[in-house]
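Sample entry (142 residues):
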Amino acid sequence: MLDHYVAEGIQELDGSKLSQLVTLRYGSVSDGVLDLGATPRSGNSSPDSRSFCINRLLEAGAGAIAELERNLIIERVRAGMRRARLEGRHIGQRPLEIDRVAILRDRNRGDSLTNIAKTHRVSRATVSRLLKQAKDAEPVSI
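Predicted structure, serialized as tokens:
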């Protein structure tokens, strides 16, 4: 039933369908009314309190539908990513193809980080990270 509302949109939601959604979410309409903080409808309640109750129920129903739709989107995206991985396709940004040896050689020659970055068409932060990785990878002599 909720899939239909996700597909058709909230405009189609009326009072008769709302009670089904509230029952699905809270177990019964009266439990939904109590859980949302509104007083249950009685013979002496004013029209304002009834409209408040209905508005709260509509908000809860719309929120439940929005949450469901968001979860369906997340599930579809994850399924697509899983399928792509199984098919051997790369997901995400491809790693940079950088000549690490040339960057280290240029730095050992005394070139600045900015000049090395411009020469190799990478960011200055990438050059700095590569130099740090190379420094960390060197064996420590005692």
